[in-house]
Design brief:
Largest sheet: 7 strands, mixed
Number of strands: 12
Mean pLDDT: 92
Strand order of the largest sheet: 1-2-3-7-6-5-4
CATH class of the largest domain: Alpha Beta
Strand content: 25-35%
CATH topology of the largest domain: BirA Bifunctional Protein, domain 2
Distance between the termini: 50 Å
Shape: globular
CATH architecture of the largest domain: 2-Layer Sandwich
Radius of gyration: 18 Å
Order of helices and strands: HEHEEHEEEEHHHHEEEEE
Bound molecules: biotin
CATH superfamily of the largest domain: Bira Bifunctional Protein, Domain 2
Helix content: 25-40%
Number of helices: 7
Structural class: alpha+beta
Number of domains: 2
Length: 271
């Protein structure tokens, strides 16, 4: 167990702009995303951050759960309330991915990479961070985006079912613990900066370029699952909406807004 989240420590060296304008620290919650959505329904301001030391029902994508061991991970949610550009909502997931990988790289001695739509993996393909963005109606007929981020920080073991597929910063740093409060400050700073940048003219194109520069997916052969269908193809890149473009053997290129990459293999000569 590493030091608990501590607001005095966090604010010592953090001056919020939007993200982190209010921070709620709790010992245990079912899910920080669920609590953040409750606050949205109560008209909370943009930038609210919920930080929990553990979650009893941490949620992952596609109905999965997120293992939330007390005292060692980051279980973080923040509320974003876009004023316009509602069509940009899916791109918040990419924004959160870029901000998270930049924050992680401030504290990680090993290579990390983004896997679409938003996992952060070690070079060995083990999962270090997961992101779950959810929308929630605001009291004024707008839409809030709850950005939920789980980072494996100081875990040295994981439950049996994810032991082979998960890693942590401590494992990647050869046993050196990471200060969770410092990592949270970095995460809030990077979300703030990326959120502002994506709202500038040309910001979404730049976000997609940045996301792509932190991924080693493109040009690789992948297996991709959409619902019950499995697709074999080559990951070509992201389109302007942030959808994943896959080329199949028949020469067809299709953009997917949802789905799961289940395997990534070496690049082979072009189809
Ligand atoms: C995934 O990889 O499937 C997404 C995992 C997201 C986990 C985080 S932990 C903080 C926030 N609260 C939740 O219940 N889930 C997200």
């Amino acid at each position: 167990m590493t030091p608990k989240h501590n607001l005095a420590d966090i604010f010592k060296d953090f001056h919020p702009r939007i993200i982190g304008s209010r921070i709620e620290v709790i010992d245990q919650v079912d899910s920080t995303n669920e609590l953040a959505k409750q606050y949205v329904r109560q008209n909370c301001a943009e930038g609210l951050v919920i930080l929990a030391d553990s979650q009893t029902q941490g949620k992952g994508r596609a109905g999965r759960s997120w293992t939330s061991i007390p005292g060692v991970g980051i279980y973080f949610s923040t509320v974003i309330i876009p004023q316009e550009n509602k069509e940009l909502l899916p791109q918040f997931t990419l924004m959160a991915g870029v901000a998270s990988i930049l924050a992680i790289q401030d504290f990680c001695q090993a290579e990390t990479t983004l896997k679409w739509p938003n996992d952060i993996l070690s070079a060995e393909g083990k999962k270090l961070c997961g992101i779950l963005c959810e929308t929630c109606p605001t009291t004024s007929d707008g839409i809030a985006v709850v950005v939920g981020i789980g980072i494996n920080v100081n875990q040295v073991t994981f439950p049996e079912e994810i032991q082979a597929s998960a890693t942590s910063l401590k494992i990647l740093n050869n046993g050196a613990s990471v200060d969770r409060n410092a990592l949270i400050c970095s995460l809030m700073r990077h979300i703030d900066a990326e959120y502002m940048a994506m709202n500038l003219p040309g910001g979404v194109e730049k976000l997609i370029e940045k996301w792509s520069s932190h991924s080693n997916l493109f040009g690789k052969e992948i297996t991709f699952k959409v619902g019950n269908t499995s697709i074999e193809g080559r990951a070509l890149g992201l389109n302007e909406a942030g959808n994943l473009v896959i080329a199949t053997q028949d020469g067809k290129q299709t953009a997917y807004s949802a789905g799961e990459i289940t395997s990534i293999r070496r690049a082979t000569p072009a189809h």
